Amino acid sequence: MDDIGGIDMCGTYALSSNCLGSKEQRMARLEDIPEPTRTAVANLPCPSFETTPFVTGPALSGRRVAIVSSAALIGRGDKPFPFGSGEFRAVPSTWNNDEILMSHVSINYDRAGFQRDLNVVFPIDRLRELAAEGIIGGVAETHFTVMGSTDPASMVESADGIATALLADGCDAVVLCPV
Question: What pTM did the predictor assign?
Answer without folding.
Answer: 0.70
